[in-house]
Amino acid sequence: MKIHVIEGNHNLRSLLAWHLHQAGYQVQQSPTLAHAYQCCDRELPTLAIIDSDFPDGEGIEFCKWLYPQGNSLILMLSARIREIDHISALQAGVDDYLKKPFGMPEFLARVEALLRRTRTSATIPTDMTYGDLRIDLVRRCVYLRDKSIDLSPQEFSLIYVLAQANGRPVHRSELLKRAWDIEIDNPRTVDSHVLSLRKKLGHPDPIETVRKVGYRLNY
């Protein structure tokens, strides 16, 4: 498991990295947000440990960027003690928030608790890839060539079922049964949602109409 420590204070950053190394983790360090962006753009960590304040920006902005990139966990370290700061961090995608100053036993316990989530869910698929599409099953987000596509919950369910078919045509009745939570008899409901999906996914058209059957995903 790779841990990325993003901390502007050299002494604290080195101390945290040393203890994490001793605990058996692979650790990468960044002294600035600019360096952290470059590193995480190449490879996402299992856990990012980030301070809230840097000379070149705020940690919360980095969290907002990192959160939709993949499944990295985020632990924020901060001297800010106001409740609103804590809430803003959680809304930005932070998984845990540790107020400074803190003791090393508590820090390591927080890290271990976060990483337990990864080990517990290791056998459960968290996303799937189909051609240029990446479907995040945890956050229910869809990315086309790494660009986030804004889909409604129903559109997400529809494209997920189509992707699961792995190129096989899916009958309208099957789509209604698997992609809708409520019982619907009108197959035109599927057609209207496919039309909306096509507009959002752009060209070339990824959803093929199979005459007298239904639809097939062609990425």
List the defining traits of the structure above:
single chain; 219 residues; alpha/beta; Rossmann fold; Arc Repressor Mutant, subunit A; 5-stranded parallel sheet; 4-stranded antiparallel sheet; 8 helices; 42% helix; elongated
CATH superfamily of the largest domain: Response regulator
Radius of gyration: 21 Å
Strand fraction band? 15-25%
Number of helices: 8
Explain how this protein is built.
- It is built from 8 helices and 14 strands.
- Helices cover 42% and strands 25% of the residues.
- The chain starts with a strand and ends with a strand.
- 24% of the residues are buried.
- It has helices at 10-22, 33-42, 59-66, 83-91, 104-120, 153-164, 172-179, 188-201, and strands at 2-6, 26-30, 47-51, 53-54, 57-58, 73-78, 96-99, 127-130, 133-136, 141-144, 147-149, 170-171, 207-210, 214-217.
- The chain has 219 residues and is α/β, with parallel strands linked by helices.
- The protein has a 5-stranded parallel β-sheet, sandwiched between helices. Strands 8-9-10-11 form a 4-stranded antiparallel β-sheet, covered by helices on one side. Strands 12-14-13 form a 3-stranded antiparallel β-sheet.
- The protein has 2 domains: 2-120, Rossmann fold (3-Layer(aba) Sandwich), CATH 3.40.50; 127-217, Arc Repressor Mutant, subunit A (Orthogonal Bundle).
- Strand 6, helix 4 (83-91) and strand 7 (96-99) form a beta-alpha-beta unit.
